[in-house]
Design a protein that fits this description.
This protein is an alpha+beta fold and 123 residues long. It is built from 4 helices and 6 strands, in the order βαααββββαβ.
Length: 123
């Protein structure tokens, strides 16, 4: 079964960090990323751009309404995602725990949401 893992962070806290602080944090990520890849469970992984660069599309009165980026009532935003293959939720949690957001970045709100994918088509 496939699981979508959403990597969250506090965008404002992250942007408030100095460049050396950011570099010190992200330089710790490669070993965790490598472990995730080496597990053989990783299907795809991506980081997302800043929310200020995003747009939302919604149906309104039979047309597409386009507005500025996410308006979630939370300080945590999705900053990346990855899709993994696992036999069940327990294995998905174990695999997702290899991701840097499960080990690092507590001060910037890093965290992971693991959700089963009910339909997945790869072309």
């Amino acid at each position: 079964m496939k699981y979508l893992c959403l990597a969250y962070y506090d965008e404002k806290a992250f942007e408030a960090m100095s460049k050396p602080e950011v570099e010190a944090l992200v330089s710790q990520c490669p070993p965790h990323d490598a472990a995730l890849r080496a597990s053989g469970h990783l299907i795809v992984q991506a980081s997302l751009g800043a929310s200020r660069e995003s747009m939302c599309l919604r149906p309104r009165s039979g047309k597409v309404s386009i507005t500025d980026g996410p308006f979630a009532e939370t300080k945590e935003l999705v900053g990346g995602f990855f899709i993994i293959e696992a036999k069940d939720l327990n294995e998905a949690i174990r695999v997702a725990s290899m991701h840097p957001a499960a080990h690092l970045g507590e001060t910037v709100g890093w965290g992971i949401e693991v959700r089963p994918v009910e339909f997945f088509q790869q072309e």
